[in-house]
Specification:
Blueprint lengths: L20 E6 L2 E6 L6 E2 L1 H21 L1
Antiparallel strand pairs: 1-2, 2-3
Length: 65
């Protein structure tokens, strides 16, 4: 899991409270720059885990519509 938050803490924040982010390749790492937080370099495996979690959340949201 990409974060240590429990399911009970997860919620969709209002759009104006979301953090800016930029994702790009950086010499064998994936650079994920965020306006909130301080980690920017992730291994390809870590970045893939984050992407899979995002896609799982999207799939879950689509299923509940």
């Amino acid at each position: 899991m990409a974060t240590d938050q429990s399911e009970a803490d997860l919620r969709v924040p209002p759009l104006e409270n979301t953090a800016f982010f930029s994702i790009e390749n950086d010499d064998g790492y994936v650079r994920i720059e965020q306006s909130l937080g301080n980690q920017v370099l992730y291994t390809p495996s870590e970045a893939r885990d984050i992407a899979e979690e995002i896609l799982d959340a999207v799939d879950g949201a689509v299923e509940t519509d």
